[in-house]
Amino acid sequence: MSSGDRTQPETVKLTTEQLLLIRQASVRLQKKFEGTFNAETIERYITDSQTQIESRARFASWLPILIERFTHDRLLALARLEVGALDRPGVLFLCVHNAGRSQMAAGYLRHMAIDRIDIFTGGSDPGYEVNRVVVAAMAEEGIDISTEYPKPWTDEIARAADVIVTMGCGDACGVYPGKRYEDWVLDDPSGQPIEAVRAIRNDIKSRVEQLLATLV
To answer: pLDDT per residue over 92-107, tens digit each?
Structure first.
């Protein structure tokens, strides 16, 4: 099924074991952000992240991991706002479904920047899975994005980013004063064959290289 399929999935139901895994994730996050956020703040964010991820999930299998990762990104963004960026720029890639273009851009930047930049992604109307042809195209470059997942952009992540790169989401992506914006005009890889996705991928790679040169 393509990432552009907007059929609403049935609501997934977490097992008792998965709920326990989420509780364990909360403990890990409390240790990770100890001294920055109290347990109540982390609980509030993990509960909200669970609600947002569950509402778009097709399968429950990986939900505890996805919820932990989404919560981690949101808390990292909040820490950037409240504590400071510690000389690390933050970049947010936004597209419509967060299933193709933004995931390729983030994959390249993570690969090139090697932990020198905080990288976030989001979608104005998130899909239910990352485009499998996109995953295959990035694997050809030696970059694995198979564990990535579509997610909404959130207010704290947008406010924490220094650079916001939009890709086809228009006004739905919102505008935050004081940010550096770049609008990348790119074809949507949804439903495209691998040859077309490779061309989009190569365009994104060139743009990411140019972006990275201005950041580090």
So the answer is: 999 999 999 999 999 9
Counting beta carbons within 10 angstroms of the beta carbon of residue 189, is it exposed (0 to 12), middle (13 to 18) or buried (19 or more)? buried
Q: CA of 206: how far to CAs of 112, 139, 196, in Å?
A: 12, 17, 16
Amino acid residing at 64: P
Q: What span, in angstroms and rounded, lies between the C-alpha atoms of 55 and 145?
A: 22
Residues carrying an active site annotation = 95, 169
Stated as kind and residue range, the H or E segment containing 80 is: helix 63-82
The torsion of the CA quartet 21, 22, 28, 34, rounded to 10 degrees, works out to -160
Question: What backbone phi and psi angles, to 5 degrees, belong to 93?
Answer: -100, 125
Q: List CB contacts of 44: < 8 A, sequence separation 6 or more.
A: none
Please, which residues bridge with residue 94 across strands?
Answer: 122, 166
Q: Is 114 left (phi over 0), alpha (psi -120 to 50) or beta?
A: left
- Domains of the chain (ranges; CATH) run 13-84 (1.10.8.1060), 88-216 (3.40.50.2300)
Per-residue model confidence as pLDDT tens digits over 22-72: 999 999 999 999 999 999 999 999 999 999 988 877 767 789 999 999 999
